């Protein structure tokens, strides 16, 4: 299996297309690969970006919150990217081939330079993965790369990956979560605060709780890119504030708008939007690590009380699709599986509560980021739905850092969340539900779960993985520690002179091809 497409060929093939895609991945990553727009790109200018949430950590080894990835994925490069059609395309790797079931060879670009002046070579790729795989470093990203035994620098610009066993989603993993780092840069400055990569923009400043500034990297390996002089990232906590900022000119690109105003804004003359697709799952995490939600019957009771359609109608105004799986249509992974398709069924929910020995009067907490008003509102709707089966839900909005600490410490009952890594559903289920994963915030642990997840990951055949996937979706729905309720139709809003924006299924916000008319 070989892919030898060059970046030039890819640009020729996709240039000028205005293809809709969705927020992500993932990653998700709302992977935004910002494709070349029609017309000639213009050099210069400042893009003032308003995202949804505040970054907390610029070290890609941690991948701590999507809000951080949105910034540092413009500072670093990956080996492989994914385009708007879901095809894998070159990054720091020009081409690649699978030498056998457990060995892959990547040919690398020879003109990339880190922002500290160090030339990029295969040694950086080997170091990046050695750092991730070293258990002493305790990097959360390790869960993505358990099949990788090691990476060998064959020559200055060739890297060979050695796997412990065949891995179906390897390229998807590389396209989502492999920002290449430099050993010298990591020793000189704390990567959590000072990211140094080979990306189109170099880190300039981070004013806590206000903004992050990136500047054009003049030695970027793609000739003529990037176009912009600077990108300044802001993270206002409210959709209305973002929209007002776009309308008044404070921002010229924003991630979201109040969902109830989407229809009106699509007709506005002072802004435009990108097309979008549903690539960004929203869900509830139920803390299965302790009572009362350690009881599967109570988790199922909540699932049967859940009215997904009501949430999407009252909170998201058509900006989401109702779904019970992370990858709905038009994703090639869509299954249509929903074991709770007749929900809400309040009688069934009450019966399960009685079987669990829980009558009326049960009180639970709902953890949510205060910076994401739609998830706060979602919790308020969920509170009214659970009240019908005798559950009192207390909505607890927290700042991003506090929210993340509470997740890690399992100090919640139910939490509202999204996930930005859905190019391949392995990258959703494995991190969220495998017993060894640091992202398993629900605390759900099961030998059967691990067995199913490992089988899905370590099956090389795409056809075989597609065949086993619907049952994987069904099984986790029946366990109920993750309740997916919708998938956001990702789109971006901008001033009319902003060009080159196409969201990708990886959900990455990558601005190297954006230019201002």
Q: Main beta sheet: strand number and arrangement?
A: 7 strands, mixed
- Tally of helical segments: 15
State the CATH superfamily name of the domain at 279-489: Dipeptide-binding Protein, Domain 3
Q: Do you know the CATH topology of the domain at 279-489? A: Dipeptide-binding Protein, domain 3
| Classification by helices and strands | alpha+beta
Helix proportion: 25-40%
CATH level-two architecture of the domain at 279-489 = Roll
Outline, from the CA principal axes?
globular
Oligomeric state as shown: single chain
CATH class of the domain at 279-489: Alpha Beta
Roughly what fraction of the amino acids lie in strands? Answer: 15-25%
Mean pLDDT value: 89
Q: Rg, please? A: 22 Å
Q: Report low-confidence residues grouped into runs of 5 or more.
A: 1-38
Question: How many E-type strands?
Answer: 26
What is the terminal-to-terminal distance? 41 Å
Structure report:
With about 525 residues, the protein is an alpha+beta fold. It has a domain at about 280-490: Dipeptide-binding Protein, Domain 3 (Dipeptide-binding Protein, domain 3). The protein is about 30% helix and about 25% strand. The protein contains 15 helices and 26 strands. Strands 2, 16, 17, 18, 19, 20 and 21 form a seven-stranded mixed sheet that branches. A seven-stranded mixed sheet has the order 11-12-13-4-14-22-15, with helices on one face. A five-stranded antiparallel sheet has the order 1-7-8-10-9. The protein is globular. Residues about 1-40 have low confidence and may be disordered.
């Amino acid at each position: 299996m070989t892919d030898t497409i060059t970046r030039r060929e890819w640009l020729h093939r996709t240039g000028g297309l205005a293809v809709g895609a969705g927020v992500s991945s993932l990653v998700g990553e709302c992977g935004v690969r910002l494709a070349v727009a029609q017309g000639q790109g213009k050099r210069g200018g400042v893009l003032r970006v308003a995202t949804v949430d505040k970054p907390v950590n610029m070290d890609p080894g941690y991948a701590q919150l999507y809000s951080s990835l949105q910034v540092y994925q413009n500072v670093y490069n990956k080996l492989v990217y994914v385009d708007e059609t879901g095809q894998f395309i070159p990054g720091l790797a020009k081409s690649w081939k699978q030498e056998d079931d457990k060995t892959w060879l990547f040919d690398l670009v020879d003109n990339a330079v880190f922002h500290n002046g160090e030339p990029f070579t295969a040694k950086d790729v080997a170091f990046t993965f050695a750092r991730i795989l070293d258990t002493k470093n305790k990097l959360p990203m390790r869960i993505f790369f358990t099949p990788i035994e090691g990476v060998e620098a064959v020559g200055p610009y060739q890297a060979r990956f050695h796997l412990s066993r065949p891995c179906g989603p390897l390229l998807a993993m590389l396209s989502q979560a492999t920002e290449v780092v430099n050993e010298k840069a990591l020793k000189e400055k704390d990567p959590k605060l000072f990211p140094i990569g080979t990306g189109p923009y170099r880190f300039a400043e981070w004013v806590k709780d206000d903004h992050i500034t990136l500047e054009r990297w003049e030695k970027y390996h793609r000739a003529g890119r990037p176009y912009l002089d600077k990108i300044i990232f802001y993270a206002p906590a409210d959709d209305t504030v973002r929209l007002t900022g776009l309308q008044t000119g404070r921002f010229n690109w924003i991630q979201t708008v109040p969902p109830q105003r989407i229809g009106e804004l699509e007709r506005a003359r002072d802004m435009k939007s990108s097309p979008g697709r549903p690539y960004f799952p929203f869900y509830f995490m139920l803390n299965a690590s302790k009572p009362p939600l350690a009881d599967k019957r109570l988790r199922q009771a909540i699932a049967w009380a859940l009215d997904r359609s009501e949430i999407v109608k009252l909170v998201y105004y058509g900006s989401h699709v109702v779904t019970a799986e992370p990858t709905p249509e038009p994703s090639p992974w869509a299954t249509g599986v929903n074991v709770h398709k007749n929900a809400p069924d309040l009688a069934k929910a009450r019966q399960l509560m009685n079987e669990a020995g829980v009558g009326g009067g049960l009180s639970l907490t709902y953890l949510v980021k205060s910076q994401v008003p739609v998830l706060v509102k979602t919790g308020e709707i969920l509170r009214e739905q659970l009240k019908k089966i005798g559950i009192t839900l207390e909505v607890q909005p927290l700042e991003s850092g506090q929210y993340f600490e509470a997740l890690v410490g399992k100090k919640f009952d139910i939490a509202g969340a999204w996930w930005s890594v859905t190019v391949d559903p392995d990258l959703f289920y494995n991190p969220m539900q495998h017993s060894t994963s640091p992202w398993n915030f629900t605390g759900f642990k099961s030998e059967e779960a691990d067995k199913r997840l490992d089988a899905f990951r370590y099956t090389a055949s795409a056809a075989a993985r597609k065949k086993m996937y619907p049952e994987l979706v069904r099984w986790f729905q029946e366990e109920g520690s993750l309740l997916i309720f919708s998938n956001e139709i990702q789109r971006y809003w901008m001033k009319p002179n902003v060009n080159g924006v196409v969201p990708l299924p990886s959900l990455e916000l990558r601005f190297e091809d954006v230019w201002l008319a």
